[in-house]
Amino acid sequence: MKGIKFHLIITLISVLIISCGSGPTPTPEPRPEPRPETRQESEPIVQVPEPVVTPEVREEPRNETTETTAPVVITEEYYVSIRSEVRQFIQRLNQIITVGDYEAWRTALSPDLFAEISSEENLRRISEQPIMTSRRIVLRNAQDYFTHVVRPARANITDEIDNIDIEFVTLTRVKAFTVTTTRAGEEQQVRLYDLEKIGNLWTIIN
């Protein structure tokens, strides 16, 4: 009996092995090919603008030569009016220098001219002149310059107001001069001031 059972078990195992080996081989499902990475529709596209280069603008320097040599056309009436103003200005300036009014003299100067006079380099240069060293005068400020340079220089000069004339550089800038006669009997121009009218006031610029 045991032999029969053993034989049946062996037969059953053989049948199972055969049936498994002869069955259809399952076909694997094809794997989908990877799709190329694409930008999501919801992702915004940012465009970076190109930088805008603004050309450098440089202010051209003023042509002083052109400005001072360009002819100025004026009327006779304007010439007479400006000459009268300049004569009055110089007459008042002479009085200021005569009485030694430093503050009034200072206000008659342009800021640039006052700065030039007050500079250490200018004061040192004038102090080194023989006329100053012989008198042991050292200029330390603009007031010293007024006292020891301007007043002595103008002390022996008496401007005849009627002899003062002007030469126009621009409509608001003139050169004031007077005419003197040399020993040889020749007339000679002596420049007094370079003046500029700023607002309603004349100012010494040189």
List keywords for this structure.
206 residues, alpha+beta, Nuclear Transport Factor 2, Chain: A, four-stranded antiparallel β-sheet, 4 strands, 44% helix, disordered N terminus
Please write out the topology.
Layout: H1 2-21, H2 64-69, H3 76-99, H4 102-107, H5 111-118, H6 120-127, H7 130-133, H8 142-155, E1 164-170, E2 173-181, E3 187-198, E4 201-204
Antiparallel strand pairs: 1-2, 2-3, 3-4
Q: What's the main sheet like?
A: 4 strands, antiparallel
End-to-end CA span: 148 Å
Give the fraction of residues assigned to helices.
40-55%
> Beta-strand percentage?
15-25%
Please work out how many helical segments DSSP would assign.
Answer: 8
Give the neighbour order of strands across the main sheet: 1-2-3-4
- Written as H for each helix and E for each strand, in order along the chain, the element string is HHHHHHHHEEEE
Based on helices, strands and strand pairing, what is the structural class? Answer: alpha+beta
Name of the top-level CATH class of the domain at 71-204: Alpha Beta
Mean pLDDT value: 76
CATH architectural grouping of the domain at 71-204 = Roll
Query: What fold name goes in the CATH topology slot of the domain at 71-204?
Result: Nuclear Transport Factor 2, Chain: A
Radius of gyration: 52 Å
